Amino acid sequence: MDISIIGGTGDEGFGLTLRLARAGNRVTIGSRIAERGSAVADTAREILGAGATVDGAANEEAATADVVIVTVPFGGQAEIYRSIKDHVKADAIVVDCTSPLATAVGGRAWHVVRPWHGSAAEQAKAILDPAVRMVAAFHTISGEALQDLEHEMESDVLVCGTDKEAKAVVGGLIDDIPNLRWVDAGDLTQARIAETLTALMISINRTYKIHDAGVRITGRDAWGLPGS
Amino acid sequence: MDISIIGGTGDEGFGLTLRLARAGNRVTIGSRIAERGSAVADTAREILGAGATVDGAANEEAATADVVIVTVPFGGQAEIYRSIKDHVKADAIVVDCTSPLATAVGGRAWHVVRPWHGSAAEQAKAILDPAVRMVAAFHTISGEALQDLEHEMESDVLVCGTDKEAKAVVGGLIDDIPNLRWVDAGDLTQARIAETLTALMISINRTYKIHDAGVRITGRDAWGLPGS
Predict the structure, then answer these.
(1) How far is CA B174 from CA A121, B56, B146, B181, B214, in A?
(2) In a designed cystine with A160, which of A66, A103, A113, A190 is the match (CB 3.0 to 4.6 A)?
């Protein structure tokens, strides 16, 4: 499956690049400047070794993939989506990983602002063609932990979206990452809650002087596809 | 320690009554009607056996305890706090367990409304004497699981509050319940996030057809008092 990661040069995006490429996926790192994407793709291939397929591209080109993962800070999120909207395929799956942290307006990382559309993911959906299948995910996964390939992932991924098939596809990618589990958290509006967990984790990190607080959902031995 | 539970006749409140009384605490169940509180206290003593100290009282009397735990639906929360405000001691610790579920306005239990003060706990704080030490907790703990004394608690309690000593006292009560852990989630404003987790758990329960989804915080082996 063709996957691109817009913002793949940042911590979260680069971590997802490494994990998804190591699982055998072809990953394109999108960047505002194509050369920057290519340089970071070189670094990824150096880390992963010869078998990995990672390329770099300008965001507009990366946006044409089947699955487009967007990992950018909230302050620039709308602008990025407007810049790629004419390039995203109508049947694409777009995975938004944005958390509306108050840092976007000079505030604290353990506070959030409230996007007009309810969540950052819904703001993104409002910019793209209505046919695009939007999924929100990865808010509780630290970029640092993703990048450390020896680190066993402990936190679960909450997946929100209205299209069940799109959630299953994204869930399949998550299942390819060792020890990472996904939980179907409901429709896209549930991102209003899931996105704010990033700030809560940062608050806990700050209180306990740690770096990678996460959440595991309890109440069932296995999660993933509901009904399975 | 004298503990009272306003709303102790409801699922969450009765579950906390059983668990805290079993741990050796003296618990008063508050109810709008004193006789109703006493009747439910009788039931609790029947379940727990002779050693347990559980009494019933009218809310106004129950509100004079050292630690007042309030477990009421959001729709009636402000009214309950106004009815007890003149009875709560100035140095009391008040633990608010309210989640602003949209059911309060005829909506869905997996949606929330946004309290004017930011969170239900901050709304409660605004009603009480400013000296009262407010803590928000127990949003991710199912009343059903608490009432089933054979059930090993799996979900962590997120504790929010601005007074560190008050959080430590509440944390001590939580530590008395077998398998229950508490995580200091930050100051009282973090309840804006923690309270909404109830709705997210209900969304997950609904999707997976289960009853007690919860959260465990990962990233540290032990939680509780920060710095310990």
Answers:
(1) 36, 22, 12, 7, 16
(2) A190
- State the sign of the Cα–Cα–Cα–Cα dihedral A28, A34, A39, A42: positive
A192 CB neighbours in chain B (<8 A) are: 196
Contact B183 A206 (CB under 8 A): no
pTM of the model: 0.95
Q: Which of A110, A184, A209 sits opposite B186 (nearest CB)?
A: A110
Give me the mean pLDDT over the A140-153 stretch: 93
The mean pLDDT value for A109-134 works out to 98
pLDDT averaged over chain A? Answer: 96
Which H or E run contains A215?
strand A214-218
Residues of chain B with pLDDT under 50: none
pLDDT tens digits for range B31-85? 999 999 999 999 999 999 988 999 999 999 999 999 999 999 999 999 999 999 9
Question: Nearest by CB to B184, which of A190, A207, A215?
Answer: A207
Asked if A29 contacts A9 with a C-beta cutoff of 8 angstroms, the reply is yes
| Inter-chain residue contact B218 with A219, CB threshold 8 Å | no
Q: Residues near A160 by Cβ (< 8 Å), separated by ≥ 6?
A: A121, A135, A136, A137, A185, A186, A187, A188, A189, A190, A191, A194
| pLDDT at residue B203, rounded to an integer | 98
Asked if ipTM goes beyond 0.95, one says no
Spell out a b/e string for A119-150, using b for 16 or more CB atoms within 10 Å of the CB, else e: bbbbbbbebbeeebbbbbbbbbbbbebbbeee
CA B209 to chain A, closest CA, distance in angstroms equals: 9
Query: Residue B75 corresponds to which tokens in the numbers above?
Result: 């729709």
Under 8 Å between Cβ of B184 and B211: no
Instruction: List residues of B whose CB lies inside 8 A of any A CB.
Output: 110-112, 114, 154-155, 158, 183-186, 189-190, 192-194, 196-197, 199-201, 203-220, 223, 226
> Which pair of tokens denotes residue A15?
């971590």
